[in-house]
Amino acid sequence: MSLAGGLGARWAFTENRIRSVYVYRTDILIWLIAPAMQLVLMAALWRAIYNGRSTLDGVSLSVMTTYVSLAAIQNLINWDDTIDWLTARVRDGKIGADMARPVGIVTQQVCGQVAQLIVKTPMIVLMLPVIFLFSDLSAPAEGALGWYLLSTLVGWLLNCCIGLLVASVVFWTLEMGGMEFLYSVLSGFLSGVLVPLWVMPDWLRTILEWLPWQAVVYTPLAIYVGRFEGTRVWQAIGVQFLWLAVIGGLTWLVWRRAVNRVVVQGG
Amino acid sequence: MTVRASVAWQLKAGGILLGGAIRGMAQYRADLFMTMAAGAVFQSVGFFALWVMLARFGEIGGWSISDVALLYGIRLVAHAVWALPFNQLRFVEDFVQEGTFDRFLIRPVNPLVQLMTSRFRLHPLGDLLAGLVLLIPAMSLVDVDWNAWRLGFLALAILGGGMVEGAFQLGMSAIAFRTLGTRQARFTVDSVFNLYGNYPGKVFGRAGQLALTILPVAFVAYLPTTVLLGRTDELGLPAWLAYLSPVVGALLFAGSYAFWHRQIRHYQGAGS
Known about the structure:
The complex is a heterodimer of chains A (267) and B (272). With 267 residues, chain A is an all-alpha fold. Chain A has helices at residues 3-23, 25-50, 61-78, 82-92, 95-100, 105-120, 124-134, 145-167, 169-173, 179-190, 202-209, 218-224, 231-258; strands spanning 55-56, 59-60. In chain A, strands 1-2 form a two-stranded antiparallel sheet. In chain A, helix 2 (25-50) runs antiparallel to helix 3 and helix 2 (25-50) packs parallel to helix 7 (124-134). The model of chain A has no long low-confidence stretch (mean pLDDT 86). The longest helix of chain B has 32 residues, at 148-179. Chain B is built from 13 helices and no strands. Chain B has helices at 7-25, 29-57, 65-86, 92-98, 102-106, 111-116, 123-141, 148-179, 183-196, 205-214, 222-229, 239-243, 245-263. Chain B is globular. The model of chain B has no long low-confidence stretch (mean pLDDT 87). Chain B has 272 residues and is mainly α.
């Protein structure tokens, strides 16, 4: 397949997935409700903890509420249905048809993730009223915007890879049985969506710093609010790329083996 | 349709049906423990996040971490109290859409009892476990003299709280007889209870606290916990309202059951 033809097929596939995401419009609204409610809760909790004080431990309330708002946006961007989708395809055997397509199976997943990103990014606008009513969103730290966007992109890519890796479990178990739900809850905490790492006790922060999830959400947010400055920004983005290489490589290896495990029953 | 009215008969039939459901579920042991663990972890993560915040900053709205743990524990146990017997309500719309609700109507057992026992799911046990793990240590850590009346009030509050949540879920599942799709609405209401029911209402400001009292999320755990901790002053509401929270649950549930019973008449078999 020529490069142009390959791109065309990929885009056609992505377009297709965009359409299928749009079919479930109410589900799209549900994606907004959960992070919006979470955002209102976290902003209220931080306000109550600050209890009228403008700074605590040298961190101002507006940094906290900005962090909370961005965490909701980041969560929205990173949430995707790869695990659910793949579980359903493996269970009902449609994965067989997927594998017969001229576009590789992993590429199809990536197209699916791109499709969801294209659908979800404009929805951030719908979050803004909630953000300004219940929380806050101050401007990024000086000169941090570009780094933040780069870091968000790398974080999103890393999240895609982690999603693919977790989803591949289904090739062996055929059934996720609550595991995908457990994973989404845990990764919310591990990535710093719920509580920023700098608030955590040292032992907990050390553990989380050695795990890949903080590179998905915490790193871009810490850059935005100015917790990371100067060379620390470089280092943090370097760590993100490192994780992307490690997890990306692992994902590629696991998926290469996984597709050999596929058994399509009936059909 | 003739349904034998005696409660004893309904209980006996319910017991037999439940036995079958439990035997069915026991075929999938690994899945069972996985879903239970998922329920417990899901509920614990929210508390753990708050614990991390308070370990650093001390208190929230004048509530220490053990005060909030008491509230959180009461909410989770109350949640399990309704979710254990009634979690099958989620599937009313599946039964309605597939037309399989018919069989509940032609058997001589209350359709709600049959629905409740159509399958047995263990994930609410995870909620119960997480709730008790919070509640029991919190009871010894908070500055409360656990005399007979407070223990009695705690038990009633948990039952009442379960009924408040159960009333909403029962009421919404009844709507499925008419409009079919209620999944989104139910999910949203469940999230509201899950997110805002676990924290002192005071945290959400005057307006938020009032909204949660009217909704009435605050009756599940916040209001009864202020009674136990002797903090009804912070409510800005008459204290008797907090003392009445178990009654509110019972009233709501009774109203909701009457509504369910009326809506069931609108069920139309989907053919097949």
